[in-house]
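Why does residue order matter? Because the sequence determines the fold. Keep that principle in mind as you read this record.
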Amino acid sequence: MWCTETLYPDIKISLRGKLIHKEKTPYQNLKIYKTERFGNLLLLDGAIQTTEKDEFIYHEMLTHTVMLLHSNPQSVLIIGGGDGGILKEVLKYKIVKKAYLVEIDERVIEVSKKYLKNICQKAFQDKRVKIIIEDGAKFIKETSEKFDIIIVDSPDPVGVAKVLFSPKFYKEIFTRLTEEGLMIRHTGSTILQEDEWIKNWKILSRIFPHLWLHLIATPTYIGGFFSLIVGSKKIDIFKIDIDKLEKKFKKMGIKTKYYNPYLHLASSILPEYVRRKL
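Structure:
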């Protein structure tokens, strides 16, 4: 059978595979497919979230592009990310003392533990991790905790995730970051979701003193280059010494399949069709 993403009415991606799990959670329709080419795949409300084969591109770039820039990232907040892929990458940093994962849908975590073990690995078992089953916007509004890094790994801005793209949410993230803090989130395809990333850029540019984009291409995400926006209180990527960053990366001994410090900088050099709209 075929697993087909139904995010858009006029364009689709289909992968041959077998449906091995499906359920309707209190928040969304959840399916797991075992595909021939990409391994197990997570589908939420008809949209591909991650696959075992290509998850490393998205998860590494959404993590290391902020973690490595901070001088001492001891506290990390992940909003969403119930598949555990971001959490796994964050925990590669021995300096991290606490990693909060706030996920509204507990079933995503439980299903991922069973069917996406190659993605989350043993991340949920780490003693530094605190799992909070709650709406991310509610948590960020009510918490008194401060974080060095905040990573927003949510679905597209529809349904329950819509509030995670609002000006109010971003302002509250800013207040919850430490002095050197950084936040990052995906903002969709630069081709198919142009309105989304432009709108988010405009909102965040009024809140953060430093802002930049990274572009990534993940095979199972429709739309070519996808955008990741970084908001920073203090650090400016374009003033970073790339050779020093490379030395720091090697010294920490972090193993990656996609990310490296030179790609870190290269992915922020934007094509004209993107740059002109900033």
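Residues 179 and 255 are 28 Å apart (CA to CA).
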